[in-house]
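[09:14] KT: can someone run the structure on this one? pasting the chain below
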Amino acid sequence: MEYSFTATGHKNVTSKHKSTFEITTDKSLTLNGDCIIGLNSNITLNDFPQQLRDIIQTDDSKIEMILRTENATDTIIGYGSSQLTLDHPTDMVIRKSTFVCSRTLMIKSDKAAKDLDKQLIKDLSNGSKLEVTIKA
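[09:31] RB: done, structure tokens below
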């Protein structure tokens, strides 16, 4: 299953967080949000199709997330869990850890904000459009 959506960057995208990164429907970002890489997402976790939700909510299901801007692409691999609720109204968090809450999209990710492609982050800090594709 493949599912795509868009978000945008922001001048305050710093991508310095060591264990997570986040995409949100929020419209603004302070420098404290060092895990947030995409804002103004056109979907929330609640909007994911049921077939995708079922896969993500299966223990150890492999999830691939592809992030694209006009000058860069990065691929992140993580895993699903039966503990994921996928029901947060604004935030999607990708975690290196196994911590689960309503904001969690995937766990055991191979990358956090600080690990993402530097050109991708530069594009996002200049307000670039972010294309997100999830393959599960």
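[09:33] KT: thanks! The radius of gyration is 13 Å.
[09:34] RB: yep, looked fine to me
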